[in-house]
Design goal:
By secondary structure, the protein is an alpha/beta fold. The protein is 32% helix and 16% strand. It contains 17 helices and 20 strands. The strands form 6 sheets. An 8-stranded parallel β-barrel has the order 4-5-11-12-13-14-15-16, surrounded by 7 helices.
């Protein structure tokens, strides 16, 4: 009798992704399975989480803030981009307001600011105050006629105006006229050296005739140093996305968003498999072939095929799994999130289209599981709601510091336009598919994201994979192994048997 030779295939426990999801007649969530551990031969710091957002856009960290009016406006989008992620600005506002929010992000950081805001000598301190309130900065070049690309005659900074009580004084009387400038063609490194030596905050770049060409800011250079993973476009500006609906008015929105440099458009529909979305995708692609489009939301392979055939560059997966979403209960339509992500991702991968796992994520384990079953990025509302950068003011309830968080199909949000995501026409009678609530203060995103990223790195180490690409390769070839969890296994895998305990918070200090 010959001895049986064991090999690695014989010793593989658990199920492949295909076996896990094909053997079940019931939808699975992220909590219904675990990834079996892999072989560790690297440190968490060796994990590289760079990933594809769309066919043509790569970001360093696989996190996205959701286009919700209590989650993502310019402050959140700026923080996300600085941390190597990206924010999608909501459209529950006027088109001009959304455009202004995108513009703030694109202006926030740029090695050479090619379109600096300028004023003229007859403008007043009050005009400068308005710019500071709107854009968050106050060091302004002064040109002869107050328009860009004309002769530079001075600069006004906080030091020139801080103690002036009369805000109607013309800037021409206060501006610094003895300027340190640099000539057009200087490198960013050379400009940085001039700023260091001069100890100035801003360096105007002029041409041979003294006309203002661009501006370099000391604060921007510091940001380059402090945020090495920042998501930037080819012009070194922060990346940002914007959501639009399938309604005809959104076509005009897209035109205006393109003008201010939006990087990606997310067509924001609760059910994305529709003629309205297909027509919107085709319209945008025909008019702006290079503009990246993310379609959705979808949960099946058939839906994925329809939007990929229409021309999308990324897919958003999820229908009803969010903490404030009641679509599945109200409409009896949707799909369990893990099953939706796996099936859509497996089909989309054959066509080179990344997928976003949107919804159902409330801890690091959910993030790791979403990536393990094929998602390239994870979109979150709840996880980023309640942070310092989320829209809205903090308030206290029973001594707990909170912020509002609401679904875009809550009655409250629909009164201000949130229903555009759910309906293809105006509805006289509105049926809520979301709720309004509150979330606990999580601190700043600039502290919270590093906490999430460190947790993901440790999870990748436990799974035995250094990159998202390697993880997905192991998923497709069956090397990544899973196991279904019973309800008792889920209970055992959480805290149990203690008289009392202190739960870790999701707030990173």
């Amino acid at each position: 009798m010959s001895e049986r030779i064991e090999n690695s295939q014989d010793l593989r426990d658990g199920l492949s992704g295909e076996e896990l999801f094909s053997r079940q007649n019931v939808g699975l969530t992220y909590r219904d399975f675990l990834v079996l551990p892999g072989y560790i031969d690297f440190n968490p710091s060796d994990v590289d989480l760079e990933t594809k957002l769309t066919r043509d856009i790569t970001i360093k960290r696989p996190l996205i803030s959701s286009p919700m009016d209590t989650v993502t406006e310019s402050e959140m989008a700026i923080a996300q981009a600085l941390m190597g992620c990206i924010g999608i600005i909501h459209y529950n506002n006027k088109a001009s307001e959304q455009v202004d929010l995108v513009r703030k992000v694109k202006r926030y950081e740029n090695g050479f600011i090619s379109d600096p805001i300028v004023l003229g000598p007859n403008d007043t301190i009050q005009d400068l105050d308005a710019i500071k309130e709107k854009h968050g900065f106050s060091g302004i070049p002064i040109t002869e006629d107050g328009t860009p690309k004309t002769k530079l005659i001075g600069i006004v900074t906080n030091r020139d105006i801080d103690f002036e009580k009369d805000r109607s004084i013309p800037l021409g009387k206060l501006m610094t006229k003895e300027l340190i400038t640099a000539q057009k063609g200087i490198s960013l490194l050379e400009a940085n050296d001039i700023l260091k030596k001069s100890k100035k905050g801003k360096l105007p770049i002029v041409d041979s005739q003294g006309l203002l060409v661009s501006l370099v800011s000391r604060s921007d250079i510091k940001k380059n140093r402090d945020f090495p993973f920042a998501s930037k476009d080819e012009s070194k500006r922060l990346r940002v996305g914007a959501a639009v609906s399938t309604l005809p008015e959104s076509r005009d929105r897209v035109d205006e968003l393109v003008k201010v440099g939006v990087d990606v458009i997310v067509i924001d529909s609760a059910q994305g498999h529709s003629i309205y979305q297909v027509e919107m995708i085709q319209y945008i692609k025909k008019k702006y072939p290079g503009l990246q489009i993310i379609g959705g939301n979808i949960v099946t392979q058939g839906q994925a095929k329809a939007l990929i055939d229409a021309g999308v560059d990324g897919l958003r997966i999820g229908m009803g799994p969010g903490s404030i979403c009641i679509t599945q209960d109200t409409m009896a339509v949707g799909r369990a999130q893990a099953t939706a992500v796996y099936n859509a991702a497996m089909y989309a991968a054959k066509h080179g289209v990344p997928v976003i796992a949107d919804g159902g994520i409330s801890n690091i384990g959910d993030l790791a599981n979403a990536l393990a079953i094929g998602a390239s990025t994870c979109m979150m509302g709840f996880m980023f709601a309640g942070t310092k950068e989320a829209p809205g003011e903090y308030f206290y309830e029973n001594g707990i510091r909170l912020k509002k968080y609401r679904g875009m199909a809550s009655m409250e949000a629909m009164k201000t336009g949130g229903g555009k995501r759910y309906f293809s026409e105006d509805q006289k009678i509105k049926v809520a598919q979301g709720v309004s609530g509150t979330v606990v203060d999580k601190g700043s995103v600039l502290n919270f994201i590093p906490y999430l990223i460190q947790g993901l790195r440790q999870s990748f180490q436990d799974m035995g994979h250094r990159t998202v690409v390697d993880l997905h390769k192991a998923l497709r070839n069956g090397d990544l192994r899973f196991e279904r969890r019973s309800e008792q296994a889920q209970l055992q895998g959480s805290v149990h048997g203690l008289y009392s305990y202190t739960a870790p918070t999701m707030r990173a200090e």
